[in-house]
Amino acid sequence: MKVRKTAIKLADGRDLFYFDDSAEYVSGEKTRRADDPRPLVDRFTPVEVDGELKPVTAPTMRRDPLTGEWIPMATHRMNRTFLPPADANPFAPAKPGAAFSDGEIPDTDYDVVVFENRFPSLMAVPGQADEEITVDGEELFISRPAAGRCEVICFGPKLEENLVDMGHKRMRTVIEAWADRTFELEKVAGIKQVFCFENHGKEIGVTLHHPHGQIYAYPYVTPRTQMMLNNATAYRAETGRNLVKDILEAELRSGRRIIDETAHWVLFVPVAAKWPVQMQLMPKRDVGALYELTEEEREDLADIYLKMLSAGDKFFVEADGANIPLPYIAAWHQAPVGEQRDDLRLHLDFFSILRSPGKLKYLAGSESGMAAWISDTTPEKITDRLREVYGK
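== Galactose-1-phosphate uridylyltransferase ==
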């Protein structure tokens, strides 16, 4: 797979990367626009507050003293773009001939593009010390800068398309971009975990409907990953084996919830699935991160990933038999940076909050208050329906 990566700086100093799979750009015959003509000030320029210039500070995060979780306080995101009109899509290519627009991509076309989020919940500010301080002078109340990074990945230039429409070649380019950004972000000082994901559908809370995903680089290990690590580390201490690998082998031995198995990947409904529609996608080989995948594994992944998305869109149907596009979250779990890296393996969690046509799975008292999940179905029923529609 030949992909050309081109790095530029946006007008306010943020990074943008073009990932091109079109032959004329891969060969160098053509190049992408490198300048951003928007009249934006550098994002780290001091701002005026009550008549005084104040340095820009990073978003902060506070540690919950009961659970140990870090909670970023991204108050500036209240002003981010929300459901813009179709002619003001900030993820669309620039309009040909226009002096500038308030879009994020300077070129009039692109294949895949990744750029730093204009309204990030995690951001490192040059010169600002990444250190813990107390809140209200109380030793139990700890705050520190949310010194991570948030990136947006646009899968293609057309608002009306999705990954399934774009096909195998574009999916491969997206995989190359995920792998590249994971590799580069893991090298950033202070980053503990890189998370590639896609929120899809208004029911999930998507505010910009252009086909895109996000990449977060956290300055801490996230709560869900920490729970998995705790279990995996205890399991290794007891058995000497990798928990995620053994789960995959157990699912293969059972076979009851397997949706698809290829040379390199297995797609299945997890034995304790908690969402109304849920699948997990795992490589057969011990792999910690997306950039560790071989060329053959990436090719195989592109095909099975698109089949998974297509099956999701056929899971529910209207009364007239029309398919209902599935709102979903596709979340890549990668091994964290550090000593416990070998305890977790790469895998994707794909799930939806849609429990039936027109009805959502609400996270009510038990789920939200106690994190004690109650499923509205069974993994086997989810499997049976997915088998009916998979590959059709």
